Amino acid sequence: MKKKINSKKQKASHSQWSSRGVFLLAAIGSAVGLGNIWKFPYIVGENGGGAFVLVYLFCIVLVGVPVLIAEIALGKSVQSNPVSTFSTLAMACKASRFWALFGYVGIVSGFLILSFYSVVAGWSLEYLQVFIQNDLLGSDARAIEQYFTQLLASPNTLLLWHSVFMLLTVAIVARGIRKGIEKIIIWSMPILFVILVILVLYATQLEGFSKAFDYLFVADFSKLTTDGVLIALGHSFFTLSLGMGAMMVYGSYLQKDTPVVKLSFIIAIADTLVALMAGLAIFPLIFTYGLESTSGPSLLFISLPNALLSLPFGQFFGIAFFFLLLIAALSSAISILEPVVSFIQQKTRLSRHFVTYLIGSIVWLIGVGALLAFNDWSDVHLLGQRNIFDSLDYVTTSILLPLGGLGVSIFAVWVVSKQPNTRQLLGISDSKYPIWRISAGIIAPIVIGVIAWHGLN
Ligand code: TRP
Q1: Which of 135, 285, 272, 121 is nearest to 199 (CA)?
Q2: pTM (2 decimals)?
Q3: For a Cys-Cys bond, which of 11, 82, 131, 368 suits 318, CB 3.0-4.6 Å?
Q4: How much distance in Å is there from the Cα of 142 to the middle of ligand 1?
């Protein structure tokens, strides 16, 4: 009987995770994505290795964690969508209603990020299929490179995989937190971890492992540029899913007595471990076969398949790898869509299904523009010399996310935590409060300001 009453109550109000552990898996699932497995290794490669990794780690601790704490705490305190989290708290603090603009910035970022994220996730679907069918067997390095170039040149293939990926994402989000997101996260995150451990163990057996280890963990500061520092800063944001309300909305499904600081640290540590492990799985392969570690975005789609195909059980490890990439991307994509759906659904009161499919279609359409940037529309320039894909990436990663993060951290520290009653809502314990205040209220805004300034220049 009691259970019945509880579940009725739950329905009427905002949903909640079925446990703290599930929240952790979902938040880690959001953080761990293409950013860790595709982007991190290639930006390490482009920026010279160990010194870059060290700067990145500093950024995670100094900026990432304090902002992550702020985002989850804000979400948890009001238990609503990002826009109304800002407006409700602003009202309670008698601050300007304009703070809600940051919520809107997040919603817009969500549309834009997911559109190009889905296109890249689509590449992992293509390569999963390639390894399952062993299509590249016997190809030489040139042929493997051409395969990727060909893929980018074929709008139809890109469109197919982009559509499949968006459909998967929408189908999960449409089912809601408990029936959709939780059901997927519970099995996909453990599998992801197991696959990654197997891949790293395998890499330890290769000749190139010790070189890869030194490459990642021995800092040679002569290789670090100012650009590299700024890339590390920007990436610490992207990889922790900050600045658009994803962590806020996941936090809003938490119970009020959840310890935010501890959970934020666990999320950041898990995310960082996965990125480093991805590096330890990929670079030994690259070095063993004397391939380029500096090849940029194509590291995972040209250099890696090249190395895998020369190995015993390469096909098996290729399937494992691209499956890993797919589930990592999917659990992140879900979290990009969720804040948008939660906002529009609460605003319009339309059914969750309808809202999710509607938003999914709009995101899909923007994504079509992004994928055409690699072929038919490569001459279309939106911002400066950037094509549609690069413009979407630039506007979000360099402008909107830092802006959103700035809003979150300043709002949490300088507005919400100013008043005792709203400060209490954040649920940050007294012992941790002063350090958090300085890092989220002073250090993070300064650092974010620098990234944004650089992004605009
Ligand atoms: N963190 C994810 C990754 O590393 C991407 C992501 C998910 C994201 N949700 C986000 C990035 C919200 C920015 C904002 O791939």
Answers
A1: 285
A2: 0.93
A3: 131
A4: 33
**Residues 6 or more apart in contact with residue 380 via CB below 8 angstroms:** 372, 373, 387, 388
What ligand 1 atom has the least distance to the C-alpha of 38? 15
296: Cβ–Cβ under 8 A, 6 or more apart, which residues?
Answer: 42, 45, 46
Instruction: List, in order of start, the domains of the chain with CATH numbers.
Output: 2-7+19-456 (1.20.1740)
Whether 345 and 352 have beta carbons less than 8 Å apart is answered as yes
Instruction: Give the tens place of pLDDT for each residue, 18-76.
Output: 999 999 999 999 999 999 999 999 999 999 899 999 999 999 999 999 999 999 999 99
Question: What distance in angstroms lies between residue 203's CA and the mean position of ligand 1's atoms?
Answer: 27
- Tell me how far the alpha carbon of residue 238 lies from the centroid of ligand 1, in angstroms: 5
Taking only the tens place, the pLDDT of each residue in 150-197 is 999 999 999 999 999 999 999 999 999 999 999 999 999 999 999 999
Around ligand 1, the residues with Cβ closer than 6 Å are 30-31, 33-36, 113, 238-239, 241, 243-244, 246, 332, 335-336, 401
Q: Which atom of ligand 1 is nearest to the CA of 240?
A: 1
Kindly state the tokens that stand for 308: 């895998």
Segments of the chain with pLDDT less than 70: 1-13, 451-452, 455-457
Q: How many CA atoms lie within 13 A of 217 on its CB side?
A: 11
Q: Which of 61, 69, 78, 92 is nearest to 437 (CA)?
A: 69
Among 28, 30, 274, 397, name the best residue to mutate to test ligand 1's pocket (greatest count of ligand atoms within 8 A of Cβ). 30
> So what's the pLDDT on residue 455?
61
Q: What's residue 15's pLDDT?
A: 86
What's the 329 CA to ligand 1 centre distance in angstroms? Answer: 9
Pocket test for ligand 1, best of 114, 236, 335, 393 (most atoms within 8 A of CB): 335
